[in-house]
Design brief:
- The protein is mainly α and about 260 residues long.
- It has one domain.
- About 75% of the residues lie in helices and about 0% in strands.
- Helix 3 runs antiparallel to helix 7, helix 5 runs parallel beside helix 7 and helix 6 runs antiparallel to helix 11.
- It is globular, with a radius of gyration of 19 Å.
């Protein structure tokens, strides 16, 4: 977002605001405080909302301290946590083809994000990528657990709580910047937040809905690999990003991984 001179925190906070608003609009029924608090998933939704904003800051700090490549790989490698939970907790059936596809998917992340030359890894800076790995993986697993055990056609209500909690924490940080750093809100941040909020709510909503129809060990790897491969293509087409032969090999491996995982029995 620095390329477009948009404050990252500001855009993310507006994104959570508009995502919350969309959750209310999609629900379409009357809302009171009891509508939320009486839900069996309410306390876990609060926790996930906190995780949302924490992982955002971990992503930001890890990018600065450990580098973009290491951060990207660790955030995508977090898919192993819900995949393992799928086999151990949600009774997904393992197969040789599925496991081979998952391994290919993980390796493809490394190849796609590998910069030219060596990927510098400093053990002293490994804490942030590792925490990001745990944070995203735990959050995804909690989302699946809540969907599996509690959600019954109230996904939009659940997401309303999650995004509202993330917004409340984020807006406090924005006010801190306004008061102590004399920061002013910008219309760019508002517009970007509106677009991100619509995309964020839509993708998360349908992602949770799709959990009812696909095994965890299939859905999470396929979604993650698809996002990485697609964004790489878009970067080449619209932003003139240059990919190395190794990066292209990673994309081809990602496509193969999708085919293997999605067709596994």
């Amino acid at each position: 977002m620095q390329k477009f001179k948009v404050d990252e925190l500001e855009a993310i906070v507006w994104n959570y605001f508009f995502a919350t608003l969309l959750g209310v609009l999609v629900w379409r029924e009357s809302l009171t405080l009891l509508t939320f608090t009486e839900k069996p998933w309410f306390s876990l939704a609060l926790l996930i909302g906190v995780f949302f904003i924490i992982t955002f800051f971990l992503l930001s700090r890890s990018t600065v301290k450990a580098g973009l490549a290491i951060t990207a790989v660790s955030s995508r490698m977090s898919v192993v946590i819900p995949v393992i939970a799928g086999f151990l907790v949600f009774q997904d059936k393992p197969s040789f083809v599925k496991i081979a596809g998952i391994i290919l998917a993980l390796f493809s992340f490394y190849l796609i994000f590998k910069p030219k030359g060596k990927m510098n890894f400093n053990l002293k800076k490994a804490a942030l990528p590792f925490l990001l790995f745990l944070g995203i993986g735990t959050n995804d697993t909690l989302m699946k657990y809540i969907e599996h055990r509690y959600l019954v056609n109230d996904e939009s209500l659940f997401l309303t709580v999650v995004f509202f909690v993330a917004f409340c924490i984020g807006i406090l940080l924005v006010f801190q910047k306004i008061i102590f750093n004399k920061k002013r809100l910008s219309s760019k941040g508002l517009f970007v937040g509106l677009v991100l909020g619509a995309l964020n709510f839509g993708t998360t909503y349908f992602f949770i809905r799709s959990m009812k129809h696909f095994d965890t060990s299939v859905l999470f790897p396929v979604i993650n690999v698809s996002i990485v491969a697609l964004t790489s293509f878009l970067g080449v087409l619209f932003f003139q990003e240059k990919l190395s032969k190794i990066n292209w090999a990673g994309i081809l491996m990602a496509i193969l991984a999708i085919l293997l995982i999605s067709t596994a029995r």
